[in-house]
TrEMBL record:
GO terms for biological process: heterophilic cell-cell adhesion via plasma membrane cell adhesion molecules; homophilic cell adhesion via plasma membrane adhesion molecules; protein localization to cell junction. This is Ig-like domain-containing protein. It comes from Oncorhynchus tshawytscha (Chinook salmon). Belongs to the nectin family. Residues 373-404 are annotated as: Disordered. Residues 374-383 have a biased composition (Low complexity). Keywords: Cell adhesion, Cell junction, Cell membrane, Disulfide bond, Glycoprotein, Membrane, Repeat, Signal, Transmembrane, Transmembrane helix. The chain crosses the membrane at residues 341-365.
């Protein structure tokens, strides 16, 4: 208990003896030309010590330089390089009996060379010297600007890269960062220069191949300085040769057609001043009239109009040509009649039906072939059959619709485990089928059925059937029966 009291007393004693301190900000910054306040407060002890003198010093590169001195009996002195720009903030410092507890200085019209550490030193009696330090940083706002290399850029056919714009951020401290924002497919070059006074100049060139596509494109330079964004935009003005195409020929110029014309369309900057027409290895027809950028053919179309027409468009940058080959036909070109859509629809339906039938038949054939290879091919010695003549093509789709309804196609699945029974064949009596139409091999069967879809050839002879179910395998079998015979 007694020991702890002693410790507390000791602590208070130490604080009382070492109680003076100099309070300052540790860092301070300002822009060139602006004013900063460098704080310096002396915290005295109780009982107070006596302040003999206060000295402000600039500390740079290991050397100290006096800035200002305040002395209770001699007054205040601000030294030459700082005389116009440094003052004590508190008027009491300059009084006849001054108060020197607050010796904060106002530093105005900052220069880059003012960047240094500043020491505020209190000389006291009997405690001796107390001091502290503030580091002053001086910033310089850069001059930022973007310039077009030339007001108008000319796109040359050689497609050479060139600097179209420059973005400059000069004499900044700290240094700026330049970026570009554009849809142009160009590239930027960057360059930075360190100045003797500590500032940095950053320059960036935007390089692009000028072309018709780069005309009117926006180019934005973004300069970031000290968390501050400065943007500047330009719109490129690119001059280029005419891009020419000839309109008006629709591929259907037939004899006696009236009022045909050709028009030379050119995209150009600056605009086209001269259009010239000619015909390759020939001359313009006598019936033609030239109106601005159009060729008007008076009267009816004749064979005389056929030929390759060339239009040459010229602007301040150059001349480019476009051409069109005009063919004249005797009759108007056949155009699909309005009913064409119906025809197409009908065709699609017919095609769908054909595919469905073809797939079914194909499946049947595959099964057949499979079973036949499993058994002795007793069909090879059948008399060779000739392929039946294909039906007239134009009647085919109606034939199919007429004879093959869904009831006519049956698919039977014979499971292996079921007792083998004579399968049911839903078909016309075999006598009604001429033997010569019967295919002689499995392969042929398929060809014929697939290709012709002839109802007669789709019926099988009894011998074909017996060979199929003798295999006793899984068999899918279709019979396609002509509904009316
Ligand atoms: C500071 O000192 C370095 C070498 O110690 C010297 O290169 C530099 O120029 C000095 N700067 C100033 C501002 O005197
Ligand atoms: C202030 O500057 C001095 C010397 O230039 C340096 O040693 C010190 O670390 C700096 N202090 C701060 C807080 O930047
Ligand atoms: C710094 O130096 C550059 C180049 O000498 C000069 O153009 C610029 O004005 C200077 N900046 C300041 C703030 O003195
Ligand atoms: C057109 O003229 C060119 C030379 O100008 C020649 O080479 C070409 O054979 C000619 N064609 C016709 C169809 O006369
Ligand atoms: C064609 O030229 C005439 C003058 O010759 C002008 O009045 C007219 O506007 C022009 N037409 C077009 C479509 O440029
Ligand atoms: C026009 O006729 C020429 C031959 O006279 C031919 O080579 C060309 O393909 C035709 N062009 C068209 C669009 O019919």
């Amino acid at each position: 208990m007694l020991a702890s009291v002693w410790i507390v007393l000791l602590a208070v004693n130490i604080e009382a003896g070492d109680g003076q301190s100099v309070q300052m900000d540790s860092i301070k910054s300002g822009f060139v030309g602006s004013q900063v306040e460098l704080r310096c407060i002396f915290v005295n002890s109780n009982p107070p010590v006596k302040i003999s003198q206060v000295t402000w010093q600039k500390f740079l590169n290991g050397t100290k330089q006096n800035v200002a001195i305040a002395n209770p009996s001699l007054g205040v002195s601000v030294l030459p390089p700082f005389k116009e720009r440094v003052t004590f903030k508190q008027a009491a410092v300059r009084h006849r009996t001054p108060s020197l507890e607050d010796t904060t200085i106002m530093f105005s019209n900052l220069r880059l060379s003012d960047e240094a550490a500043y020491i505020c030193e209190y000389t006291t009696f009997p405690a001796g010297n107390r001091e502290n330090m503030v580091n002053l940083t001086v910033f310089a706002r850069p001059q930022t600007r973007m310039t077009l290399t030339t007001p108008t850029i000319v796109a040359r056919p050689q497609k050479r890269k060139m600097t179209v714009a420059t973005c400059l951020s000069a004499n900044g401290k700290p240094q700026s960062v330049i970026k570009w924002d554009t849809r142009l497919k160009g590239e930027a070059t960057f360059q930075e220069t360190q100045n003797a006074n500590g500032t940095v100049t950053v320059r960036s060139n935007y390089v692009v191949v000028p072309s018709r596509e780069t005309h009117k494109q926006k180019l934005t330079c973004i300069v970031t300085y000290n968390n501050e964004r400065i943007t500047d935009s330009v719109v490129l003005n690119v001059q280029y040769e005419p891009e020419v195409k000839i309109e008006g020929f629709d591929g259907n110029w037939y004899l006696d057609r009236q009022d045909v014309s050709l028009t030379c369309k050119a995209d150009a900057n600056p605009p086209v001043t001269v259009y010239q027409w000619k015909v390759v290895n020939g001359s313009l027809p006598s019936t033609v009239e030239i109106l601005n950028n159009s060729l008007i053919f008076k009267g009816a179309v004749t064979y005389e109009l056929a030929g390759t027409y060339v239009c040459a468009a010229t602007n301040g940058i150059g001349t480019r040509t476009g051409l069109v080959q005009v063919n004249v036909t005797e009759k108007p070109m056949a155009r699909g009649p309005p009913g064409g859509v119906l025809g197409v629809l009908g065709g699609v339906v017919a095609a769908g039906l054909l595919i469905a039938i073809a797939v079914t038949v194909f499946m049947v054939c595959r099964r057949q072939q499979k079973t036949r290879t499993n058994t002795d091919n007793d069909l090879t010695d059948l008399p060779p059959a000739h392929k039946p003549a294909p039906p007239p093509p134009k009647k085919r789709s109606s034939d199919l619709k007429g004879h093959l309804t869904s009831d006519d196609i049956q698919v039977l699945t014979l499971d292996k485990k079921l007792p083998l029974q004579p399968p049911y064949y839903d078909m016309v009596p075999s006598e009604s089928i001429p033997f010569t139409n019967k295919p002689n091999s499995g392969h042929r069967d398929c060809d014929v059925q697939y290709a012709e879809l002839d109802t007669a050839s789709l019926a099988y002879s009894p011998s074909t059937r017996s060979s199929m179910h003798s295999a006793g395998d899984l068999v899918e079998y279709a019979t396609i029966q002509p509904s009316s015979h």
